[in-house]
Amino acid sequence: MNLVIDAGNTCVKLAVFEGDSLIFRQNSEVHNVAREVKAICDHYPRIKRGIIASVGNLDPKVMPVLTVFCEVHELTPASKTPFKNSYATPQSLGVDRIALATAAFFHNPKGNSLVIDAGTCITYDMVNDYGEYLGGAISPGLHMRYKALHEQTSKLPLLKPEEIIDYIGNSTDTSIHSGVVNGICQEIDGVIDQYKSRFADLTVILTGGDMLFLSKRLKNTIFADSKFLLVGLNYLLEYNKR
């Protein structure tokens, strides 16, 4: 069994895999991770290996706790990957994007794949049909856009994502919702169309915390998978034990 820890910017995701099967999954607050890791390892004593991918502020107590129970791989840009990395600055490539590219490589090994992770930021990651990671893009996420409008102005309110009835907002609130929700969907669909114009038979995977909210609002056909990053981390753990 493998323990997978994805420490993002807003929360920490914990998962247990038996082979390729995800058998346990939960989210944790950053300050509770060490306690949760111990509880999971006590409940699943057959966990032999673990992997940690952190882009946030992971509790420093987690690593010592985890090493008591299993062998740990901390994912870094120096970790082995199954794809050819053509990123111009590979040492600056986020471990979350490495995991997503790995999941794309194994999900569609001989095809063109664009992975869109709708989390704190929206990341776009492209793996082509030669098994080559090309890079992509990073833009502000859904909640970040609402927060920026509130914090970078003197009077605009802080709102939560909401369905838009009409793209023409007839109040300040509906104008904000239209600008953010309609804007982000137009961005994602536009990026997908750009990639489709260059890459034949493109598979598009949408994942991340805002996946469900956004998926039904996009015009392009996508493959939605909330566990895609976790699966990629499990693949990387297996790949790096060789």
Word description of this protein:
The protein is of the alpha/beta class and about 240 residues long. It has two domains: about 1-75, Nucleotidyltransferase, domain 5, CATH 3.30.420; about 85-235, Nucleotidyltransferase, domain 5 (2-Layer Sandwich), CATH 3.30.420. It contains seven helices and eleven strands. It has helices spanning about 35-45, 60-70, 95-105, 140-150, 170-200, 210-215, 230-240; strands at about 1-5, 10-20, 20-30, 50-55, 70-75, 85, 110-120, 120-125, 130-140, 200-205, 225. The strands form two sheets. A six-stranded mixed β-sheet has the order 6-9-8-7-10-11, with helices on both faces. The chain has a five-stranded mixed β-sheet with strand order 3-2-1-4-5, sandwiched between helices. The model has no long low-confidence stretch (mean pLDDT about 95).
